Amino acid sequence: MPRILVVGGTGLAGRAITAEAVARGHDVVVASRRVPDDDSPAFVPGADYRTVDIVIGDGLEEALEGVDVLVDASNGVGRASSHVFASGSQNLLHTAARFGVHRAVLLSIVNVDLSAYPYYRAKALQERSYQESPLETRIVRTTQFHDFVGGLLRRGSRLGFVPAPTGISFQPIAVSDVADALVDAAEGSGTADSTRTIGGPEVLTARELAEQWKSATGARRPIIGIRMPGPLGAAWRAGENLVPEGAIDGLGFADWLTLPAV
Ligand SMILES: NC(=O)c1ccc[n+]([C@@H]2O[C@H](COP(=O)([O-])OP(=O)(O)OC[C@H]3O[C@@H](n4cnc5c(N)ncnc54)[C@H](OP(=O)(O)O)[C@@H]3O)[C@@H](O)[C@H]2O)c1
Q: First and final CA of the chain: distance in angstroms?
């Protein structure tokens, strides 16, 4: 079984990827700046945790020792996103090439290259680093995670109403389904140097998702339509976050809402 390094393997998607790779019997190393305690929800028994900062490069060489495949599920918030996606990815890919890593798999976002939203622009540059890398690469682009849509509704409802952006639909996907696709790619499924695009099983309007969320959580606040500003709102109104042709037969939003951790 190949040795897999999951960069950002303590994050939301990364820990699901780590759990899936361990469950399939791989030798898994996780790289992140903080190593989780073994009673943390981010800790996956059977994985080997290393303290690594891909932006600065600390710990990277040690973590890449003996690695065959890397899976990149790192992320950055605000200005950190451009550091992680630009210099972080470059450091990671150059060091991986020096250490003889064979394959690199990147978790990305559908149509990320179409929007002027700064986070998406940084992410599109990250994709380009992978495409130009001498390693065999696979990019898996996915729609928004259920957790992301649920988080928007939960945070928005603190304003006194449940916000439903008008003219916008989502096709949310479970991170467990994302993890399946990433580990398939890590194992070499699909074509070398290709991009696979996947989305959740159904496209629903923001209002339909808000209704499902209200009925699952018991929230009583009214659903109010809002106009989402900026380039992200424009991209979503144009349907750039949807890939009906890439819908997988996975866990839908309503079923995800019934899971205990939600
Ligand atoms: N959210 C969505 O709906 C969605 C949809 C499609 C694709 N994606 C993509 O999926 C990826 C993962 O997203 P997520 O929400 O799962 O991320 P997340 O929960 O924010 O986790 C980010 C991970 O990256 C690590 N990290 C951050 N900076 C680092 C650094 N300098 N060096 C090493 N590790 C670092 C974090 O650990 P430390 O902080 O301890 O370093 C953590 O393990 C992102 O690239 C995102 O664009 C997200």
A: 33
Q: Which of 34, 74, 139 should be mutated for ligand 1, with most atoms under 8 A from CB? A: 74
Q: Could you tell me whether strands 169-170 and 162-165 are parallel, antiparallel, or unpaired per DSSP bridges? A: unpaired
Q: Could you give the CA distance from residue 248 to residue 30 in angstroms, rounded to a whole number? A: 27
Whether residue 261 has pLDDT greater than 70: no
pLDDT tens readout for residues 74-127: 999 888 889 999 999 999 999 999 999 999 999 999 999 999 999 999 999 999
CATH homologous superfamily for 3-142+174-198? NAD(P)-binding Rossmann-like Domain (3.40.50.720)
Domains of the chain, residue spans: 3-142+174-198
How do residues 187-209 score in pLDDT, each as one tens digit?
Answer: 999 999 999 999 999 999 999 99
Residue 250 Cβ < 6 Å to ligand 1: no
Index of the ligand 1 atom closest to the CA of residue 175? 16
Kindly state if the Cβ of 144 falls inside 6 Å of ligand 1: yes
- What does the DSSP 8-state code read for residue 133? S
DSSP 199-250: B-S--EEHHHHHHHHHHHHT--SPEEEE---HHHHHHHHTTTT--GGGB-S-
Q: Nearest 5 degrees, angle CA 104-CA 54-CA 87?
A: 85
pTM (two decimals):
0.97
